[in-house]
Amino acid sequence: MPPAGLELARMNRKKGDKGFESPRPYKLTHQVVCINNINFQRKSVVGFVELTIFPTVANLNRIKLNSKQCRIYRVRVNDLEAAFIYNDPTLEVCHNESKQRNLNYFSNAYAAAVSAVDPDAGNGELCIKVPSELWKHVDELKVLKIHINFSLDQPKGGLHFVVPNVEGSMAERGAHVFSCGYQNSTRFWFPCVDSYSELCTWKLEFTVDAAMVAVSSGDLVETVYTHDMRKKTFHYMLTIPTAASNIAVAMGPFEILVDPYMHEVTHFCLPQLLPLLKHTTSYLHEVFEFYEEILTCRYPYSCFKTVFIDEAYVEVAAYASMSIFSTNLLHSAMIIDETPLTRRCLAQSLAQQFFGCFISRMSWSDEWVLKGISGYIYGLWMKKTFGVNEYRHWIKEELDKIVMYELKTGGVLLHPIFGGGKEKDNPASHLHFSIKHPHTLSWEYYTMFQCKAHLVMRLIENRISMEFMLQVFNKLLSLASTASSQKFQSHMWSQMLVSTSGFLKSISNVSGKDIQPLIKQWVDQSGVVKFYGSFAFNRKRNVLELEIKQDYTSPGTQKYVGPLKVTVQELDGSFNHTLQIEENSLKHDIPCHSKSRRNKKKKIPLMNGEEVDMDLSAMDADSPLLWIRIDPDMSVLRKVEFEQADFMWQYQLRYERDVVAQQESISALEKFPTPASRLALTDILEQEQCFYRVRMSACFCLAKIANSMVSTWTGPPAMKSLFTRMFCCKTCPNIVKTNNFMSFQSYFLQKTMPVAMALLRDVHNLCPKEVLMFILDLIKYNDNRKNKFSDNYYRAEMIDALANSVTPAVSVNNEVRTLDNLNPDVRLILEEITRFLNMEKLLPSYRHTITVSCLRAIRVLQKNGHVPSDPTLFKSYAEYGHFVDIRIAALEAVVDYTKVDRSYEELQWLLNMIQNDPVPYVRHKILNMLTKNPPFTKNMESPLCSEALVDQLWKLMNSGTSHDWRLRCGAVDLYFTLFGLSRPSCLPLPELGLVLNLKEKKAVLNPTIIPEAVAGSQEAASNLGSHTPLVGFPHPFSSSQDEEEIDMDTVHDSQAFISHHLNMLERPSTPGLSKYRPASCRSALIPQHSSGGDGTPTTKPQWSMELTRKGAGKEQPPLEVGVHPAAAALSVFTKETASSRHGDHHHHHHHEHKKKKKKHKHRHKHRHKHDSKDKDKGPFPLASPASGRSVRSPSLSD
Amino acid sequence: MADAAAAAGASGSGTRSGSKQSTNPADNYYLARRRTLQVVVSSLLTEAGFESAEKASVETLTEMLQSYISEIGRSAKSYCEHTARTQPTLSDIVVTLVEMGFNVDTLPAYAKRSQRMVITAPPVTNQPVTPKALTAGQNRPHPPHIPSHFPEFPDPHTYIKTPTYREPVSDYQVLREKAASQRRDVERALTRFMAKTGETQSLFKDDVSTFPLIAARPFTIPYLTALLPSELEMQQMEETDSSEQDEQTDTENLALHISTDDSGAEKENASVLQQNPSLSGSRNGEENIIDNPYLRPVKKPKIRRKK
């Protein structure tokens, strides 16, 4: 393709939202995916894809597709063998940078690497040359069929195999496999255009064992036995144009449940779980009904499937016409706590079916619309299902979360616009990652992004009314469904893509309102608003003088200008005032309606029309104000710090009916430890009508107040008498009633109160004996025999309560913790924990909640010095094979131990697990926990902070995590937390100036200067596997762990990259085949391999074996010259071929690739060229995804 | 049995020597009765003028007499039971004798004959004395509405309730206490046993026995144990299901997760299943054939399908 075409595509992108124009010089209309062999034992998959494309430009001779991990055997275009190149710069982000440990640098390089293969920019890892025979055909813009044979061997991402190690056939063992990943990750399991904006129709075929089921997107057309009758082929058709990223599959011995309410909905679960599945999904039809009703639109697909699988990547993943859930969401009717959570997950996934799967996005910057709408309608479902209180509480929670995150990190930008020329002003310079691509985002940021998106949708709703909002959604959906039925007019399909501007246009068409200011404030700009409010009452003027200040200079904040609602509750009633927040106006005078003299015995009207009696004696006699609320409807994304007197907070807590206001007053009252606050909280606790979550948080507030008032506290410990009254027997107050959890509100309260009570402390800062005995009695007398519900969560919380009661041990002379000097109270606690933990082995509880709590409690005891600190127990529970919740709890304890005891060994153990654990969720979680609770941070002195660790983490994010975007971003987060953005302080000073300066100053970075060969040979000798801290290296090169230089793929920007490939492709494909790499280069490669393993901290012995095999199969490649004059001068061509029998592709490779290296403008890319061999003569060319760094390719390691 | 035992006791002194081979008291009693009958037969024979008799003939006669008396007893019992009594009266005997063809009128005269011999009652016939220890208090007299011929009340101890412990202070409390400590003891014993017999982990390096933790063992399929309710819970659930709690729960359940009513669900069916209106009533009956592609039979391969 001529560069002009690319320019065109870019310009289209810049024009952006005007209408969708594909970045590709062709239009994909149909794709066939056929997976005809799945081997669970070897965890491999063999299949082919066939893409039907229509060229849109005349001289299309190169087709870029996405593919990662897949081993491609053969590509044919219209039945003619085609040459192809495989290049994935994300496999290893930075090369040739022995000393470069700068995170800024990494993030830029990573963003560049992702861009280089970004399908939204028309790029891809796989580049196919259209055979010259077809050029004429292409010029007539006639259809091309691209047929790609591929296989996947032990995929590390994209497809996840779960193969329990028990006796029996794979079906009996419950082995299954499913697709997974973060954002567009379909390229990990089959070659495709992995973009949300390239829609096509699909034909999917999966051949599985006869005892298994393959569930995939679309309609199951038929199931056919293979000839030997031992396997079945499932044929799926998806006639609604769908993006490859929304295609999923799950295969395994699933039990099938047809929804009794909706027969086109089918549920699948793993063997033996059918009763749970029945119960769990029995609710789903109501969610369907709700969405269809509010959207006045039928569910877009003709069928829907839910699959519940083990070792899920995320709890909920929505794909076209199917959703994949974690099997841990299944529950029986006896479980209370999980039920609402699971239903939320079901509702969430269904909302994403409409917005996210059916309606897709034009580009990454439009993602917020989809996440916003699906989150918003999910919120509506929440409101309808769990009630307004729950909904408002949830909104407040989400708002608090996003506010906290933005203030911490400096802002979440919903609609990033990447201006063409202004590359420099990065919209997210405060972040340590690029927000240009979903794949470079920190997971936490992405979660917060979704959170903000739905909150902003809610703000839009506030502005234009819900009715209009739903009309807009309906309009989007009807447009899309009209477009989707246009089977042969693929240009219409772009109607199924949503863009920011399209969405906004829809809003203005439907509502006639201008929401541009709102969008500008919250969508085009990051940051939240921070208000500080205080007031004075002017008696003479009978005016409330309100002062509202803003902090818009701190990171993550922005200035707010516009209306702000303030609600004032006076004696005469509640009044709303809308203030206009302007640049310089801080003070606002609000006239009061009431005279301060209060009428005796008059009821006070509230906002909701209710009139109540209040005891007004606590009030200020001169003021008619009961309480004041700023922005009560949460119509600004803000944090409000408002000052009002304690009695006002107390009135607000008692009488304001809005749960958000109650919640706010509870958190405010923490600062007022007075008997009046105590009374207000106790009253709320007792009030049955009060929202249970408010009552629960009142418990904790009461505990805090009691602790502050400890010297003046009278009566029994806080909440004890209340608990006794509510939950204990009338005749014997020390015995709790037999459990009856019929009333969920009291159930939650009963669970929470002891946990809060255990936080009470006496004057010696110890948990009062009375409270401890009380909790022990609760445990002792717990009797669930008559209960319809399981008490596992209740018992778990009792253990949490025990853990809460633990206070630091009084240690004399740092004595060793032994049984003899064990505190008698702790002995009692330990007794309970031991018994509970042991009973769990015999009678396990649902999701092992009790084990989880016990492990946490043990860690608390260790941390407080009662029990010797020791990670062995946790490490045994963290092993693969335990239930995931247990593992996470145990890992959390190990992470904490690592931090407290600064244990190098444990940190290594954790890092090892991050790379090698079979469960992706656990890997993510460890990184996340390490980031949340880091062993040290960037400004801290720690013995753990060593150069070896820097290198190890650098390698982890640079090349060790290429199979999982999210994992890589998690590693980046950890690196950032530990070392910060710039060069880690523990590294030796850059005395070696030359190299470092080269790297850090872009201007100087000239590839020709870098002595690759020298650096390579020297560094190859250095030992990579060494984990010992390398401090103060005498020689810069020997300390280096990067000897990538040789194998290194090169740096150049996409323009150069493309033009270079064009050059290569323009030439007939066959002659190129005979070009081989010089022997000298190969020999340079070998030492590098053998010292390899820099991708992972633990050296894998298999690699070396692989290497020998590869080495043996290598041919002597002559040098390829003169391809690109500039590039060739510095290039090292590597090409390796491994010859083997065709059928035995598992371990052998037919491939040859060339690596060129080149530097250009401080950007790195790498690229490999795989040319097909002579078809008649030799085996088919095989391009390995790992070609560049084949040694550490996921597909090569056994 | 009591009789037999008493008889054995009474005749114990006499039969002690022979009791070695016939240890059974019932046998003793039988032998004694038999001997009495022999005496009777012998005396009747003497009365009839016989000087002597062969042993065999005496035995035969004894047998006949015994049969006769047994028959009288058996029939008399039948008659008395026929009239819903437990003890035969004179009239029962008379009717029996008449039934057996015996002229009752001759009986008084026969009884008063001059030459009859009187035989001392055999010691075994002594009524066994009920040991005093077993009678607790006085048998209650019949109330006036019960005829006196009815059997007496049994001994008071058989029906009188005697408070054997003091009234509990709080019944419930003790029970709960007991249940709790019992369960705790069982659990502790069980877990300790498991810990003793298997691998353990310990929180203290110096001590492995005070707080033994059963070692964590990975499962091959961890989610099964984590998710499926244990058998105990299942059982419990079934028990509570049958109780009236059931109804309440469902309504309670709905209180938290406000659920649509039936009409809503019906509507759902109508809207979603429009193309298949016959299914709208399917909630009640599964007899409607569900057309779901996953339930369709798997097709046989066609000959040489093109891939």
TrEMBL record, chain A:
<protein>
    <recommendedName>
        <fullName>Transcription initiation factor TFIID subunit 2</fullName>
    </recommendedName>
</protein>
<feature type="domain" description="Transcription initiation factor TFIID subunit 2 Ig-like">
    <location>
        <begin position="526"/>
        <end position="644"/>
    </location>
</feature>
<feature type="domain" description="Transcription initiation factor TFIID subunit 2 TPR repeats">
    <location>
        <begin position="646"/>
        <end position="1004"/>
    </location>
</feature>
<keyword id="KW-0539">Nucleus</keyword>
<comment type="subunit">
    <text>Component of the TFIID basal transcription factor complex, composed of TATA-box-binding protein TBP, and a number of TBP-associated factors (TAFs), including TAF1, TAF2, TAF3, TAF4, TAF5, TAF6, TAF7, TAF8, TAF9, TAF10, TAF11, TAF12 and TAF13. Interacts with TAF2C1. Component of the TFTC-HAT complex.</text>
</comment>
<dbReference type="InterPro" id="IPR027268">
    <property type="entry name" value="Peptidase_M4/M1_CTD_sf"/>
</dbReference>
<dbReference type="InterPro" id="IPR042097">
    <property type="entry name" value="Aminopeptidase_N-like_N_sf"/>
</dbReference>
<keyword id="KW-0804">Transcription</keyword>
<dbReference type="GO" id="GO:0051123">
    <property type="term" value="P:RNA polymerase II preinitiation complex assembly"/>
</dbReference>
<feature type="region of interest" description="Disordered">
    <location>
        <begin position="1136"/>
        <end position="1198"/>
    </location>
</feature>
<dbReference type="GO" id="GO:0005669">
    <property type="term" value="C:transcription factor TFIID complex"/>
</dbReference>
<dbReference type="GO" id="GO:0060261">
    <property type="term" value="P:positive regulation of transcription initiation by RNA polymerase II"/>
</dbReference>
<dbReference type="InterPro" id="IPR057991">
    <property type="entry name" value="TPR_TAF2_C"/>
</dbReference>
<dbReference type="InterPro" id="IPR037813">
    <property type="entry name" value="TAF2"/>
</dbReference>
<feature type="compositionally biased region" description="Basic residues">
    <location>
        <begin position="1143"/>
        <end position="1170"/>
    </location>
</feature>
<dbReference type="GO" id="GO:0000086">
    <property type="term" value="P:G2/M transition of mitotic cell cycle"/>
</dbReference>
<dbReference type="GO" id="GO:0003682">
    <property type="term" value="F:chromatin binding"/>
</dbReference>
<dbReference type="InterPro" id="IPR016024">
    <property type="entry name" value="ARM-type_fold"/>
</dbReference>
<dbReference type="InterPro" id="IPR057345">
    <property type="entry name" value="Ig-like_TAF2"/>
</dbReference>
<dbReference type="GO" id="GO:0042789">
    <property type="term" value="P:mRNA transcription by RNA polymerase II"/>
</dbReference>
<dbReference type="GO" id="GO:0000976">
    <property type="term" value="F:transcription cis-regulatory region binding"/>
</dbReference>
<comment type="function">
    <text>The TFIID basal transcription factor complex plays a major role in the initiation of RNA polymerase II (Pol II)-dependent transcription. TFIID recognizes and binds promoters with or without a TATA box via its subunit TBP, a TATA-box-binding protein, and promotes assembly of the pre-initiation complex (PIC). The TFIID complex consists of TBP and TBP-associated factors (TAFs), including TAF1, TAF2, TAF3, TAF4, TAF5, TAF6, TAF7, TAF8, TAF9, TAF10, TAF11, TAF12 and TAF13. TAF2 forms a promoter DNA binding subcomplex of TFIID, together with TAF7 and TAF1.</text>
</comment>
Automatic annotation (TrEMBL), chain B:
<feature type="compositionally biased region" description="Basic residues">
    <location>
        <begin position="297"/>
        <end position="307"/>
    </location>
</feature>
<dbReference type="GO" id="GO:0005737">
    <property type="term" value="C:cytoplasm"/>
</dbReference>
<keyword id="KW-0221">Differentiation</keyword>
<keyword id="KW-0539">Nucleus</keyword>
<feature type="compositionally biased region" description="Low complexity">
    <location>
        <begin position="1"/>
        <end position="19"/>
    </location>
</feature>
<dbReference type="GO" id="GO:0006367">
    <property type="term" value="P:transcription initiation at RNA polymerase II promoter"/>
</dbReference>
<dbReference type="GO" id="GO:0046982">
    <property type="term" value="F:protein heterodimerization activity"/>
</dbReference>
<keyword id="KW-0963">Cytoplasm</keyword>
<dbReference type="InterPro" id="IPR019473">
    <property type="entry name" value="TFIID_su8_C"/>
</dbReference>
<comment type="similarity">
    <text>Belongs to the TAF8 family.</text>
</comment>
<dbReference type="Pfam" id="PF07524">
    <property type="entry name" value="Bromo_TP"/>
</dbReference>
<dbReference type="Pfam" id="PF10406">
    <property type="entry name" value="TAF8_C"/>
</dbReference>
<feature type="compositionally biased region" description="Polar residues">
    <location>
        <begin position="271"/>
        <end position="283"/>
    </location>
</feature>
<feature type="domain" description="Bromodomain associated">
    <location>
        <begin position="29"/>
        <end position="106"/>
    </location>
</feature>
<dbReference type="GO" id="GO:0005669">
    <property type="term" value="C:transcription factor TFIID complex"/>
</dbReference>
<keyword id="KW-0217">Developmental protein</keyword>
<dbReference type="GO" id="GO:0030154">
    <property type="term" value="P:cell differentiation"/>
</dbReference>
<keyword id="KW-0805">Transcription regulation</keyword>
<comment type="subunit">
    <text>Component of the TFIID basal transcription factor complex, composed of TATA-box-binding protein TBP, and a number of TBP-associated factors (TAFs), including TAF1, TAF2, TAF3, TAF4, TAF5, TAF6, TAF7, TAF8, TAF9, TAF10, TAF11, TAF12 and TAF13. Interacts with TBP, TAF1, TAF6, TAF10, TAF11 and TAF13. Component also of a small TAF complex (SMAT) containing TAF8, TAF10 and SUPT7L. Forms a heterodimer with TAF10. Interaction with TAF10 is mediated mainly via its histone fold domain while interaction with SUPT7L is via its C-terminal region.</text>
</comment>
<protein>
    <recommendedName>
        <fullName>Transcription initiation factor TFIID subunit 8</fullName>
    </recommendedName>
</protein>
<feature type="region of interest" description="Disordered">
    <location>
        <begin position="1"/>
        <end position="26"/>
    </location>
</feature>
<dbReference type="InterPro" id="IPR006565">
    <property type="entry name" value="BTP"/>
</dbReference>
